[in-house]
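Hi C.,

You asked whether I'd gotten around to modeling the 487-residue construct. I have! Everything is below, sequence then structure, no commentary in between.
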Amino acid sequence: MRYLKKHYGLVLVILLSFWAIKPFFIQGFFPMHDDTQVARVFEMAKVLKEGIFPVRIVPDLGYGYGYPIFNFYAPLAYYVGAAFMFLGFDALIATKIMMALGVVLAGIFMYFLAKEFFGKSGGLVAGLFYLYAPYHAVDIYVRGDVAEFWAYAFIPLAFLGFYKRNLLLGIIGLAGLILSHNLTAMMVAPFLLIVMLVAYCLTQKDKKPSVIYHSLSIIFLGLTVSAFYWVPALLEMKNTNVFSQIGGGADFHINFACLAQLWDSPWGFGGSTAGCIDGLSFKIGKLHLLLSVAVLFFVLCVRKIRKSREGSVMLFSLLGLLFSIFLTLEISKPIWETISLMAFFQYPWRFLILISFFSSLLAGSLVYLLKQFGIKPYLTALFLVFFLLFFNLKLFVPQTIFSKTAEDYTNEKTLKWTVSKISDEYLPLNFEKPMSQNDVYKGKITLKGRDTFVQKASNAVSLVGLLALIPAIILMRGKTKYEQKKR
């Protein structure tokens, strides 16, 4: 009972996340845009069983010729899925557990971040608003973008690590972002740098070196630990057909959201198209937006709040929210055209991931704000969570459930033809794609684990990063104890 009382916010976040992942407990599986998840988990486990690590090429995809998907596509979620296969689950159940875990982690990590500023009740509200944000439901049950919603979970942890200058949290958060979804890591990186710079500017002069040391250590070690993935992905990308993914239907010029869609747009299971009538919803969530406006009112009108640490977090979140909304709209086109790397994001509405983050953090801050006016935090939390679940539970439902087994997703025909057609952008530039299922390679591919020089070098860098992590954490703990004694 004492534990439950001390950690009631975290316990409630976990318990109340049930309705977000309930469909994963149903027999069978649901359709999604990226319907390759079970196959990828299966292939990851298959290669790991051969003693090959890190996994880069899988044998059955790429129309049966082998496919270097995990050399370019962020692998973390699939390593987790494969781990569940090693525990005895089949590929379908392992995929479901992996996906459900990624969903719940989002609420847990946001709880810890918001709790740091707004208390347990504020953490509870922020965690659940983040977990039940409409775009989170789109990623899970419409797009099936496992990589993106796993990265969604690590965003709060990365911010928490940078804010607290905690080496372990920061490295796990940053490396987790990169290894979950490199595009999300690119989107979040500028905001993390802003947090680092603000912390440096607001810190007393004698403590500024400590800020620099911890921040640069997090960046350096986070990058080195994940180097086995991102270094080859960057340097060897030119050998693939990945640039075909830029332009056409995925051209950012035709995929901006309309302002009205951010307020309300019909729920659907289709795709993104030019104009304001898309097949999927881009709404932020009316409750998320209304609470953000309420926080803006408090920040502008109450001077005492603006000068507090909590007020600084609210102001940063408000600015982050407004800038992220701006980047989803066509008015931001000059920025997209100026920064060429942004073309890889393909869809400007991807910034809904950051909009959900900032608006959820602001929702949690309202608990703290109302507490200043004598309203009990648990009452505010109860009220907000009730309305959140009332309005948003209906979004966390798949379009339908198919009566399928693991075999349906991992048989030879599905792997070598159906799944291979969905994702083939990482095949060599001059690769001639089969025109029909009859043209698929029928032989057996044997992987021998021969890495290129770049891959071997990046593996070595990651190993050095992991080894350097141990003394760095010991040193950090020693410094913390010294500073505590000094105080």
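If it helps when you're writing up: The chain has a mean pLDDT of 92.

Thanks,
B.
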